[in-house]
Amino acid sequence: MTTLDRTAVPRRGNADRVKKGLVSGKFTALLILLPPALILFSLFVILPLADAVYYSGFSWNGYGAPSDFVGSQNYQRLLDHSVFHTALWNTAKLILVSLLIQMPLALGLALLVYRKTPTNTLFRLVFFLPYILAEVAAGLIWSFVFDGDYGITSSLLHAMGQESVYVLADHQWAFPAIMTVIVWKYFGFHMMIYIAALQGVPKDLVEAAKLEGAKPRQVALFVQIPLIKHAIVVSGFFAIIGSLQIFDIIIPMTNGGPSNSTHTIVTYLYSFGLSRLNIGFGSAAAVVLFVLAIGIAFFYQRTTGKGSKA
Amino acid sequence: MKSITTRNTLRVIILIVVASVVIGPLLAAFFGGFKGNSELRTNPLWLPDSWDAGNYIGILLDGNFWRYLGNSFFISLMTVFLTLVVGAAAAYVFSQIHFFGAKMILSYLLLGLMFPFAAAILPLFIKVRDLGLLDTYWAVILPQTAFGLSLAILLFKAFFDQLPKELFEAAYVDGCSYLRFFWSFTLPLSTPILATVGVFVFVQSWNNFLLPLVVLNDRSIYTWPLGMMQFQGEYLTQWNMILAFVTLTIIPAVIFFLAAQKYIVAGLTGGSVKG
Fold first, then answer.
1. Rg (CA), chain B
2. If 0-12 CB within 10 Å is exposed, 13-18 middle and 19+ buried, where does residue A207 land?
3. Are B156 and B193 in contact (CB under 8 A)?
4. Neighbours of A114 (CB within 10 A)
5. pLDDT tens-digit series, residues A210-239
6. Given A134, A154, A289, which is nearest B116 (Cβ)?
7. Which residues form the ABC transmembrane type-1 domain (chain A) (predicted)?
8. Å from B86 to nearest chain A CA?
9. Is pTM, for the whole model, over 0.80?
10. Are residues A38 and B109 in contact, defined by beta-carbon separation less than 8 angstroms?
11. Would you call A44 and B90 a contact, using CB atoms and an 8 Å cutoff?
12. CB B213: neighbour CB atoms within 10 A?
C-alpha cells in the first residue's frame, strides 16, 4: 500500500516523472474511472439517438426487429400531417414568447430587485419559487385556475357579470393560457441569471452615470444591460432549448387538446409515436426535434458570437 | 421630475402585483385543500370557511401517497449518487491524467449538453425494455444519470482544474497513486461543487415526468408525479382533493428549496460556490 509519509525524502526524478505524467497507476486509474461514464453515456444517450435515426426509416410497432423499411415515408407523413404543423407552430410560439415577453419581464424585475436588501431577497425567493415546482404540479394548479366551473378566471368573470369561459377547452384561449403558465413558471430562472450578472457590474460605473445626470432607465439601458450581455445570451439559449422540449405542463392542462390544437413537438411525438406504438413515425418526429435543437444551437452560437457553455 | 419616493412607491407596487400573481395560485391551492367541493365552487381563491384538514389527512393516511414519495426519493437519491461518482471520476481523469485522445473523448462526453432528452425517449423505451428493465427503478435511474453526465463532467472538471497544482505534484512525488489521490484529496476538496450538482440533479429527478411515464407502468413503482396524475384521473372534478394532493407534494419541494437555496442559486450563476 502507498501511504503518505511526510518525512520521506522524494526519490530523485519523481518530480520529472510527474510532469511527464508517468505516475504509478495511470492505466489502472484510466481503466477504473473512465469506462462507467463512457458506457452509460453511450448506451443511454448516443445509441438511442442513433437508433431514432435508424427507426425513423421503418414502419414499426416496437416488437420484433424492424423489417418494414419505408424510406422517407415517415417524414413525408409528418410533413403532410396538419397536427404536426400545429405542433411546430406552437413550439415556435413558445420560443417567441420566451424571448420577447418572458426575458424582458425577467430583466425588468431583475433590475428592480438585484440590490442586496432583505425585501429584495424576499421578492427574489418568491419570484423563483415556481421554477423549482414540478411542471405537472404547476400544470394541475393552473388547470384549476382556468377551470370553467370551479376556477379563478371564471369567478373573476362572474364578478364582472360575464359568462364563465372553459379556457382550456377553448381553441382560442387554450394555448395562450399554456404560454401564460410557462412564463409564470420560468421567468424567475432567467431573473436569477440576470441578478447574478447585475451584481457583477462594477458599482462605480453605475455611480458615474448617475453623477452625469443619467436617469435610472438610461443607466439600465446604456450601462447595465450592455454589460450583462453575456448573461442575456446564455439565458436566451436556455429559453430556446427549454421551449423546444415543453411537455410536462401540457399533459395535465390540455393533453394536446382541444382537437389537437395545443400539441408541441414533444407531446406530438409522445401521443402519435409512443402511445400508439408507431415507433418509426415517432422517431421521425424525434429526429426533426433533434435536428432543430442542434441547428438552432449552432445558429445561435454563430449569431451571438459567444459560446453557450453554462 | 418624478421624486425618488414616487419612483420607489411605483417599484414596490409593481413587485407586489407580480408577487401576488406568482403566489396567488399556490395559496389558492393550499386553501382549496381545506374546502369542500361546493365551497370551492363559490370561493376558489380566498380563505376557507373552516380549516378542515380532512382532505389532507385522508391523503396522508393513504399508503399510496407515501409509496409514491418513497419511490421518487429512492430514484432521486440513486441518480444523485451515480451522477456524482461516475461524473466526478470521469472529470478527474480529464483534469489530472494526460493521455492520448483525452480531448476527443471529453468532447464526446460533452455532446449531451446539446441533445434534447425528449428526442431519445422512444428508443430509450425500446432499449430499457430490451434490457428487461421496464418497471424497475433502474429504468429511470440509468437514463437520468446518463443524460445528466455531460453537465456534471463540465462543472466538475472546471472545479478540479482550479484546485492547487502543488498539492497534486507533492502527493504524486510522495508516491500517491491517481486513484488514491482522487479518493482522499479531490473528492473531499470538492464538496461545494458536488453539493451544487447534487442538488440540481436531485430536483430534476424528483420532478421528472416524461421518463417515468414511459418506462413505469406498475403502480407500485410509480414516482409521485405519476401518482399525482393517477390520483387526478380518479378524482377528476373533485378539485378540493386534487388541490390537497398537489399542495402536499409542493410542501417538501419548498422546504428543500429553502434549505438548499445557496446551492441552487450558485448553480444558476456559474456553478462555483465558496465553501
1. 24
2. exposed
3. yes
4. 19
5. 888 888 888 888 889 999 999 999 899 999
6. A289
7. 88-300
8. 6
9. yes
10. yes
11. no
12. 21
